[in-house]
Write the structure tokens for this entry.
Amino acid sequence: MQELETDLLILGAGGAGLFAALHAHAANPTLGITIAVKGLLGKCGCTRMVQGGYNVALAAGDSVERHFMDTIEGGAWLPDQELAWRLVTGAVERVHELENELGCFFDRNPDGTLHQKAFAGQTFDRTVHKGDLTGIEIMNRLAEQVWARGIRRLEEHRALELVRARDGGRIAGCLLVDVRTGEFVLARARAVVLATGGGPTMYKYHTPSGDKSCDGLAMALRAGLPLRDLEMVQFHPTGLLAGPHTRMTGTVLEEGLRGSGGHLLNGGGERFMQAYDPRAERATRDIVSRAMFAEMRAGRTTPHGGLYISMAHLGPENVRREFKGMVERCADCGFDLAGGRVEVVPTAHYMMGGVEFGLDCRTELDGLFAAGEDTGGVHGANRLGGNGVANSTVFGGVAGDEVAEWLALHGELAEPDRATVDGAIAAALRPFEQPAGDLHPIREELHEVMWNDVGIVRDGPGLRRGLGLLEALHERLRVTGVSDATFRFNLTWHDWLNLDSLLQASRAIAYAALARKDSRGAHWRDDFPQRPDLGASAFTRIRFDGGQHSLEFVPVAFTRVRPGATLLTKAAA
Ligand SMILES: Cc1cc2nc3c(=O)[nH]c(=O)nc-3n(C[C@H](O)[C@H](O)[C@H](O)COP(=O)(O)OP(=O)(O)OC[C@H]3O[C@@H](n4cnc5c(N)ncnc54)[C@H](O)[C@@H]3O)c2cc1C
């Protein structure tokens, strides 16, 4: 095992990780900063995949109060209101920083102002974008800036375990494995930022990038940290459905399609959304996904078992111009988005839940900061489209500022707890000691269990069955080995490690979903369909300790506005 030392270790290189690096460097250019990332810096993670865009209240007629109210109501009154306020106010600053300091250039109106498009679930068109491939613009500029600053990069290095100090009181670093050589690396750090981006890839249909397997959440659970809102998994209504033979199935067709007036049709060619919500296709993602699931359950499906999105009534030329990337993606799979119909299915997209963190991005463990999709509390029960990349860039920057300040006052390198390191290495090597088996059926079964029992519509018996199946699957994984004994670029080994993280996170999701006996936002219980008392809203806090989950409900503090009230003036409302 190699050992290295750094002042600040950042795990993950999406919007959150790269912003953390840039801000920490700006605050103190002498800091030794190391980014460890599972893939290639700039090329992996979901920030690069952002299509639709970035929510920010800039236009006349819009306001941060309105953005805040949309976020709180969209999140079914479960968000932490201070975090949500920081999101909406920080987004204004961050978008200017992206354009004026980092070199992004977003689409504009003829008068030179930023063009902002419609996204579902919002009372104002506030989504800034670069065509329909916004994330590429953001990630390319962020990566260039990081390269230019000489920040140390450990690419294709996978974080395996957070390592506490020997006395347990603070972070001492992280155990990594170099994917290329298979060598373990103990990165000792004075502070760590966790930014590995969640990612619900345990569902049959899912959108996130293949490098995301909830590693950060699994590491946080194993480190005994509290995670909140894990039952809140967002399904995006329009995942491409192109059959089981292609990995394109499940990838997302952006929200702007519905935002701009696209229609959803059932297998019989009928529009159905008006029957479920007065906003029809522009209702929030949770409502639309559930309505689609109901149509599918009723058997009104397309040849592949999904539904259709139809844009042709908006004019094929307009659609081609406005949604070039989406039209090309659909054409690759044999669909004509501009003039015909495309088969779609709700697809697991985002985890609202994650590690509990504060306004300064600190976690319960001293010296460990967290930002982006690994964290919980900003979105509550449902995330608005366009608030995801805002979250990762706003809080990534905050984490960088705060960790630099913290490092100025604290933090000698702590002596790592060697027992944790040894235990984590033994756990990672486990598949080499078991009889070789096939991981494929384990993954397939995981996908099915999560889709059927812990998916869009849930109930007690299904969740209990799901939890049992997940535990059994996890046990099966533990006794399944990999046949190829090499450590170098052994993707089967990494697949095993991915499944281990996914199973750990899935069990926590199912556990939290079973505990929450109400229906709100992304969490729908058929056995508890009644609308909850919003004034008594409480979030789930889950821990994994001594091999067991424990869970408590924590009341939401309505620090800015109570259910039924608004921050908007009468005229603005
Ligand atoms: C297809 C798609 C479209 C989207 N469109 C939008 C949109 O239009 N608007 C919007 O607001 N949001 C959108 N989102 C959501 C948005 O992408 C995310 O909310 C946000 O980018 C997450 O940023 P992040 O930095 O937390 O994570 P990511 O950008 O996903 O970065 C995570 C990083 O962690 C690394 N990593 C993972 N595991 C490990 C490990 N074990 N060790 C080391 N590194 C690790 C990954 O390689 C990656 O570099 C979209 C998501 C998808 C999938």
Observations:
- The radius of gyration is 22 Å.
